[in-house]
Amino acid sequence: MVAIITPAENRVLLQNISWQTFKTMLAEMGSESNSRLAYDNGTVEIITPQMPHENSNRLIEVFVGVLCEELGWEIKRAGSLTLTRDDLQRGAEPDSSYYIQNEALVRDKENIDLATDPLPDLVLEVEYSRSAIDKLKLYAAMGVPEFWRYNGSVLRVYTLAGGQYSEVETSPTFAPVSVKEIPQFMQEAKKNGEIATTRAFRAWVQQKISAREK
Predict the structure, then answer these.
(1) What is the CATH number for 164?
(2) Beta-strand pair 9-14/43-49
(3) Rounded to an integer, what distance in angstroms lies between the CA atom of residue 94 and that of residue 79?
(4) What angle (nearest 5°) sits at the alpha carbon of residue 98, between those of residues 154 and 89?
(5) CA 134, CA 195: separation in Å to the nearest integer?
(6) What is the pTM of this model?
């Protein structure tokens, strides 16, 4: 067992764990656990978020909601939805996951079954410390269309093509708004408060949308 502790999150690595053992761990920890699990190639990573990690996650979720609202789209927030693929023996619980393009297909679902339901259109991982599991390969193998990674200062955006992620400057979901500028607003929230910053973010988004329509 290897433990990595930062002010933002704790990570514990377990090696040589079978897929079935991982599935048992998921079932036993349940949805009430504050920890999030990931599995790939016999390695289990248990992430326990601390305040900086969780605050970043929740604030980005607020901004994603504003983006969808201003662009006129519906959204279903699926949180740390457990994503598992028995055929790939890979699994993860992202910090946040969102249905946007496929929202209508899961709108009334209390429980999402990935055997029949689509994957989230977007997943977010907050990683102040780098994960020992390659999340780019993991989510690409699963087929998640868009992946965001926030490291406490930079938001990176990846889109799936040909089974692999490529980093892009503009999110195809939220163009023409440059979501990579979100960290600037996250820093402003520390000075001005989250409500005031959300208002400023909304005004900024409206300005970007208006400029596109001219």
Answers:
(1) 3.90.1570
(2) antiparallel
(3) 8
(4) 90
(5) 35
(6) 0.92
137 within domain boundaries: yes
Q: Which two tokens stand for residue 75?
A: 């959204």
Q: Is residue 161 part of a domain?
A: yes
Tell me the C-alpha to C-alpha distance, in Å, between residue 146 and each of 76, 113, 153, 189. 15, 19, 20, 26
Where would I find the H helices in the chain? Answer: 19-29, 51-71, 103-106, 135-142, 182-192, 194-213
**Other C-beta atoms lying within 10 Å of the C-beta of residue 137:** 15
Q: How many domains does the chain have?
A: 1
Residue reference for tokens 């079932």: 27
Number of neighbouring beta carbons within 10 Å of residue 1 = 8
DSSP H helices, 73-134, are 103-106
Q: Provide the domain limits for residue 206.
A: 50-213
d(CA 188, CA 196): 9
Model confidence over 162-204: pLDDT tens digits? 999 999 999 999 988 999 999 999 999 999 999 999 999 999 9
